[in-house]
Amino acid sequence: MMTHERKRRIEGIIALTFSTLAAFLGLFWLVFILGDVLIHGVKALNLNLFLNDPAPAGVDGGGLRNAFVGQLMITICATLIGVPVGVLGGTFLAEYARGRTIARIISILADIMVSVPSIVIGTFIYAVMVKPIGHFSGWAGAIALAIIMVPVVLRTTEDMLSLVPWTIREAAFALGAPYHKVITQVVYRAAATGILTGILLSIARVAGETAPLLFTSFNNAYYSLNMNQPISSLTVTIFQYAMGPYDSWHSQAWAAAFVITIFILLLTITGRLIIKWRYR
Amino acid sequence: MSETSKKSPMDMVFASVTGIASFSVIIFIIGILYVLINESSLAIRQFGVIQFLTSADWDPVKNSFGALTNIYGTFLTTILSMVFAIPVAIGIAIFVTEISPNALKGPIGIAIELLAAIPSIIYGMWGLFTLSPIMSNYVEPFLKKITVGLPFVNIIFQGTPMGIDILTASVILSIMIIPFTASIARDSFNLTPSVVKESAYAIGATKWEVVKNVVLPYSKLGVFGGIVLSLGRALGETMAVAFVLGNNHRITTSLLDAAATITVTLANEFAEADTDIYLSSLFYLALVLFVMSFITLAIAKFFLLKAERKYSR
Fold first, then answer.
1. Sign of the C-alpha dihedral, residues B232, B236, B238, B244?
2. Domain extents for chain B?
3. pTM, rounded to two decimals
């Protein structure tokens, strides 16, 4: 006979075992995916990958210098466009419009924008930049990524500025400083680490984006520094190479995946560490 | 805001510049909506709304386009992945908040965040090279074998196990959304006041009963918001599924068949669209996706805000 007590205890043990298993399943996937990328990536990694341009299709050898450089340029340009807009926008919400309905609306819309499918942003940029100009371009890719960055940076900036105690601003006002001086010279300094973390995490977010680049910056088999022309990126190259028929392409795709994953995880970990250290 | 701040002209300039920057978010949303409607107007005029959404005919050769196969694929992969992901995510959240020793909480939390940070193209590529062979060699034949005599169930596992199919895509998608759901669920669980939990323990409840009868009901708004948020993300995910879904514009009943989602169709066909009506139909698809995910995300945000208000009371 099973007593009521016993039934309750067994039910509890079963349920808790399942959630423990679930947690280890999550860990299992992480180890599996990262381990796979690590093993295949390290095997394919060599100096030529960074120094050489792609060999003709099907020919062994060659590297991905064009994709590394292109990815770097697109990401840097996106950061230079997206970060100022995001930081300034967040400043408006946390300072000039603090507590107003409009700040709340924009804040909610930005939260939604963070999760809007990135491929839709790619189609949008295709319509407003690629189609009128007539060809794919690095700038189109950079602006697509910048649009993805803006809401991320804007929201973290708003949150970080809101954490700065109001009394600090009042102290500055009392010295006769106008509001913009208070913001740029006092509030920004107080929130600098937080804002920087937000920027790091937003770079991590866009550095791995592929979908918005597919029909904006497109791809380029040659080494190019011209942002007005199609430019290669690591992510689009991974897509093309992994789907392609050649083994040499596959191993280069793994190597590229390895580099981009390490880069993004390092950025993410740095960001998290800063938050932990600063806002404990 | 102090009176002196209004007097400085520099301050007016700075306020306007920041104001414009923050309005850019609204401009992007309205701009995307306007541009997508504008670009798809040709297809809207030719196929209408109801007909486009309900026609399963996607034929670039005949210039005949309907979105149903794409919508079907999007919903099927999303729902399946949610079914796989939600129990695991909730389990993780329960483990981290209630079971795990304190020393493990940090590492598992970090693992979840890292899983969330891995770009979707890595998931997609890993799915193609690693998961897909496992699925086609072991998992799918096994599923076929155990369902072979069962009526109805065997229909969903019909066909040759190729590994490039709805099932594989859904599994990858579920691995991708587990961290989102788990971290929101964890945050919601953490907000349950310990006094309430301790009261339940005091009257003799087991740990699982506390989770089931106190923590879950208390945090259901937040958890639900997190689930809808993940749903919104899954709807619009491109690269994780693009590798392993094939691009098959047919409505299939078997999970072992290739299919197409809106995102996969866009990724594969957008740069190749050679006629105006083809391109316009693709923009129309993007518009459908944008509206769908925007509404889903707005609902998620609504629940999360409601939860936030409840907890801060």
1. positive
2. 40-312
3. 0.93
